[in-house]
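Quick bug: Aspartate/glutamate racemase family protein output formatted oddly.
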Amino acid sequence: MLGGMSWESSAEYYRLANELVRDRLGGLHSARIVLASVDFADIEALQVAGRWDEAGEVLARAAAGLQAAGAELLLLCTNTMHKVADRVEAAVDIPLLHLADATAAAVRRAGLSTVGLLGTAFTMEQDFYRDRLAAAGLTVLVPPADERAEVHRIIYDELCLGDVRESSREIYLAVIDRLAAAGAEGVILGCTEIELLIRARDSPVPVFPTTRLHVEAAVAAALV
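Here's what came back:
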């Protein structure tokens, strides 16, 4: 696991992996995990400055370290930094399980073809993530600019700091309602921290929690 972006969501990755392995194998079984956790302040500064190549190099070095430590499957525990997934993947010989692929597969299994996408502004506005979903046959809707800005702000100013507010949940649910009214059959929670805020029972349409879906795919691949 290559995480720390933020550590709040990486903790969810660790918890889910261990719970799913325990459920599959029973008893005292837990997941064999090698975790590299970067300093998110450094990564966020590079994001804001548009220095994606440098951020990719930081993550590529960390990924190589995971492989050297014995990892056999790589998870990049962040949606946004899949912008540099190709660079990370090129640094290792082990497979990288792409988060957008795991998510798209879950949407297709649910029989849906048009989905809303919530995430950081980078994820919602740039093509690295939306194009990957589109390549899987999905039509992707995003909120208008003002709503994208507020969704992004809540992620960085609140959720990445472990600050989960009911008022922000209401803002997100209003955004989801409008995406559904625009034709979204479901909504991808395309930032790993959003699962701290939005639960399936909150939404009028199915939600696709990318952290859980990513970990489920990883455990299925690891326990063949």
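Actually, after a second look the formatting is fine. The mean pLDDT is 97. Closing.
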